[in-house]
Amino acid sequence: MSCSLKVVGLGPGDSALLTPQAQKAIADADVIVGYTLYVDLVPEALKEGKELISTGMMGEMARCEKAIEVALEGKNTVVVCSGDPGIYAMSGLVYELAEEHLDTLEIEVVAGIPALSAASALLGAPLMHDFAVISLSDLLTEWAVIEKRLKAAAEADFVIVLYNPKSKRRDWQIGKALEIVQSVRSADTPVGLVKSAYRKEQETHVFSLNSFDIEQVDMLSTIIIGNSSTRMIGEKVVTPRGYLKKYRN
């Protein structure tokens, strides 16, 4: 393997949460490729002296193809993603596009702290038991498929994490998703909303399922809907794992 391409997770956006492995991957790179917002999240010291290639929204194919192209030229290249590169991000697309070059191109995925972990930490402990993660974006997945998954997760009593709940062009999906969950879950089920986790604009809100304020949701939001056991402990959302039930009876 003579060429190197790394897909690097930046975590939520705070440089303090950028892993040492991710820092090293970026520091060792000749070229940094990514969505403009994510390139901006890379600490300035790590960008110094490097070639920066950024694209806007919806430029995923173009930037991954460009990253592969420059990596095959012999330049150590990183594609940066928010959160973890293997969760609704770029690592899968990089592998698909680079499939015919895998004999000469070494691809490495560098894990990052995902949005669901950041949101969970800020809310308390809502993911202590089984949970399902569902993206509400129907740009690449038909809404009928998303709706089917939402119904199954709700009926199976999973805690549900919602990614991509809203954008400028998608504003109705979150309302429909909540309707689906409300049909099988108690009205007082805790629902956590985290916006821009660990960034300057961070906001954290907790609602009951029947009082959730859709107007608070934006494209940088992560939503966690509790299951039938999730409750409030103080001001935090907690889903019991079952220790007290088992050992204090």
Automatic annotation (TrEMBL):
One of its GO terms (molecular function) is precorrin-3B C17-methyltransferase activity. Transmembrane segments: none annotated. Residues 7-209 form the Tetrapyrrole methylase domain. Keywords: Cobalamin biosynthesis, Methyltransferase, S-adenosyl-L-methionine, Transferase. It comes from the Bacteria. InterPro entries: 4pyrrol_Mease, 4pyrrol_Methylase_sf, 4pyrrole_Mease_sub1, 4pyrrole_Mease_sub2, Cbl_synth_CobJ/CibH_dom, Precorrin_MeTrfase. It is an enzyme of class 2 (transferase). The keyword Methyltransferase applies. Pfam families: TP_methylase (PF00590). This is Precorrin-3B C17-methyltransferase. Pathway: Cofactor biosynthesis; adenosylcobalamin biosynthesis. GO terms for biological process: cobalamin biosynthetic process; methylation. Its EC number is 2.1.1.131. Gene3D superfamilies: Cobalt-precorrin-4 Transmethylase, Domain 1, Methyltransferase, Cobalt-precorrin-4 Transmethylase, Domain 2.
